[in-house]
Amino acid sequence: MLCLLLLAAPALGAGTTLPIPTSPPPNLSAYVSPSFASFSIEFAFFPTFFGNTSAPNQLSLDLVQRITERAGAPPSFRPGGITVDSSIYDSSVAGLDLDESSTGGIYRTTYGPGYLESLALLDNRTQFVFDLNFGNNSLDIALAEAQAAFQTVPSGQLWAFELGNEPDQYNSEQRDTSTWDAATYTSEWVNWTSSIQSSLGIDAPRFVALGAAEDPTSTALITTVDVVADGIAQGGTVKAFSQHMYQYSTCDPVRNALATLPNLINHANITAYVDEWKPQIAAAQSVGVPFIVGEFNSVSCSGKTGVTDTFGQALWIADTMLYGASVNISKMFLHQGAVLVFQSNLQANTPGFSHYDTWFPVTSGTTSPGASPSFVAYLLLAEAIGASNKTRIAPVTAPGDLGSTLGAYAIWDDAVNATAPSRLVLLNMDIFNITSPSPRPAVTIDLSPLVGQGSVTLKRMTAPGLDENDPTAVTWSGQQFYNGTAVGQESVETAAAANVTVQASEGVLVFLQGAASGAGNGTSTGSTGGSGSGGSGGQTSGASRRASIFGWWRV
Predict the structure, then answer these.
(1) Are 42 and 355 in contact (CB under 8 A)?
(2) Which domain holds residue 465?
(3) CA–CA dist 376, 367 (Å, integer)
(4) pLDDT in tens, 431-440
(5) Membrane-spanning regions, if any (predicted)?
(6) What is the pTM of this model?
(7) Strand 455-462 relative to strand 442-445, pairing
């Protein structure tokens, strides 16, 4: 059921006019894929997120479907991360065996054909970046993993392989750190990928290169700029370049102290951070290869309670991804997983699912199954980017002090109008917490110079406050999605173009041309335009349990 709300113009005085170009600007991005907003799943936990053919995880499948039906295409997935660099494929293993240390760290992941069944549960249009073990320094191990995936995953879905995870972080047990640098990495990577492609009979480039962890500063060990200069693209195996992004961290006390909501939810901080990758994007483009962010999230070492498990994470995801798309990152894979004790002995978190996960597939010490408050960001992104494959994005700089608190993105969709913006995303990053005094501040935007004195339609991504951690209180277009289905009546607002209001700590998608899609699926009761009613817990698979870093494991 779709509810249309006609809003009277609020008495907030003259609205702010944004410098939105009426024709395609020079900084307009390349076309953005409907699957731009994708996911990286920690390699050892992919079957926990999706189950297997005998026990699929319906919660995960339903949540991914909510994204797919809005985007017109499923997100891509990268089974990868630190656990891949101690993985082994063994055809005699039914599903997955994890070997742990006494402190709960996974030091070996052995998987068999059942592991690959998890990939087959997803939409048959889903594309995968499949990570291979590079850290154990055994080409035979990597080749066996590649052969298993190549023989099992349909060729149209196996978009690329990736060799290793964050090779710039390898320790002395993985490589000779005294000689491990960009040139050494490039030489070894080209040799391995050429050998694997030859063994599989692959002619076209099929590997994502690099996947480095460090921010690309002058002290970084290996960057895209470095390996391009060292000739990595000349080997004929590079399909894309990748680097990872983690703006903050809980890996040690010093960085943990900086990982706060006020630091995270800051538009100026977000754009300045993503700008660090512009030279890397340019280096990839110089050899005709796309640049992706193969793994990213807001706070490394598994997030932070009170920060990444709040509605604030949704605003951060939306702003980071939209700005990333605007600077020609081709795809971004938000990482999902669990606390990995081997990452740091100084980290703030203890075993359980990561506090930054967009949803929790099964019960753990972290939480019950269900969507996180951040899940709604993917619904906003799906509808903002759209399904046409003809969408381009340009950031809009708000005037004055709004520049640091208002993220604004004009979206051109050639399927609607190739010469004028079709949609606009407004993200008000001004901090309003649950305990903040009323009234809630708001920004009023005057869009009449762009569309005249008529009206526009819009959808809201909202919550009672930035620090809201109850996913049933967080809504997209009036609906909450905690249990994988829409709860509440979908609400599409109609507002005067001269008075589009965005509350503090809220996001709005404005449809300037064309109708707002009625993509919601729920018809159950809930308050229109606000928080939906509470949802039931998500479904879990009936899989067997096995010891893991949580004290259990599902295969």
Answers:
(1) no
(2) 2-27+391-511
(3) 18
(4) 999 999 999 9
(5) none
(6) 0.90
(7) unpaired
